[in-house]
């Protein structure tokens, strides 16, 4: 966190990072590989849809 010179820049980064991390983070150890890949593909498709439009 020392790389951020301003508190506002840090807050913006943390807000964006939290939303992206929560969207893509899923505990792999709790899912089978097939379910993990399916959920990951759905999250990526939704993210691409959000970024495109």
Task: Provide a descriptive summary of the structure in words.
With 53 residues, the protein is an all-alpha fold. The protein is 72% helix and 0% strand. The protein is built from 2 helices and no strands. The longest helix has 20 residues. It is elongated and about 45 Å long.
In short:
The protein has about 55 residues and is mostly helical. The protein is about 70% helix and about 0% strand.
Unreliable segments of 5+ consecutive residues: none
Helicity range of the residues? Answer: over 70%
The mean pLDDT is 80
Structural class: mainly alpha
Strand content: under 5%
Major sheet characteristics:
none
Number of strands: 0
Radius of gyration: 15 Å
Q: DSSP helix count?
A: 2
Elements, N to C (H/E) = HH
Ends distance: 31 Å
Tell me the overall shape.
elongated
Keywords:
2 helices; 53 residues; mainly alpha; elongated
Please give the structural blueprint.
Elements: H1 7-24, H2 33-52
